[in-house]
Amino acid sequence: MKPVTVLLLPGLYNSGPGHWQTIWEHTLPQAVRVQQQSWDQPHKDDWVASLAAAVAAVDGPVVLAAHSLGCALTAWWVQSGMPGLQNTDADDKIKGALLVAPPDVERADFPASSFSPMPQMRFPFTCKVIASSNDPWCDMAVAQEWAAQWGAEFHKLGAKGHINGDSGLGAWQQGQDWLTAFYTAV
């Protein structure tokens, strides 16, 4: 069996040095950040194309680790038919997705309007949605509803803001444990 590649999907403005995604990129040998054309002015179709290219470039199983707008990207990628899989079934390549702090892309003040509305369909792979009780970008009830629509396990992390570098999670061991659970299912 080929090793699992973790594709890190940051959100708007990318993930800075103290963000758990950046720490994972530097400490987990199987973690690769998916680069986007514009982190500051994202366009959904461009981001989906970048994810499709990253998935196509991996020769082996993939786990997605998305934060914020990366969660909406994952939903749009699924709704678009998961380009990049070529002739491979999603069950054979995508082993799971960790969707952390999905933002409410439908809010009037959300800065990436091309990601609205949030796709609401069952994902064809295992996923977990992790939400914070005091996330300024999404109410817990909205994140929980999306988790239900996507067929995802829902986990309340507590009061951790937007579950980013400012949340003080460091390497975020609990998140790594959830990630490891996807590996062991391979």
From TrEMBL:
<protein>
    <submittedName>
        <fullName>Alpha/beta hydrolase</fullName>
    </submittedName>
</protein>
<dbReference type="InterPro" id="IPR010662">
    <property type="entry name" value="RBBP9/YdeN"/>
</dbReference>
<dbReference type="Pfam" id="PF06821">
    <property type="entry name" value="Ser_hydrolase"/>
</dbReference>
<dbReference type="GO" id="GO:0016787">
    <property type="term" value="F:hydrolase activity"/>
</dbReference>
<keyword id="KW-0378">Hydrolase</keyword>
<dbReference type="InterPro" id="IPR029058">
    <property type="entry name" value="AB_hydrolase_fold"/>
</dbReference>
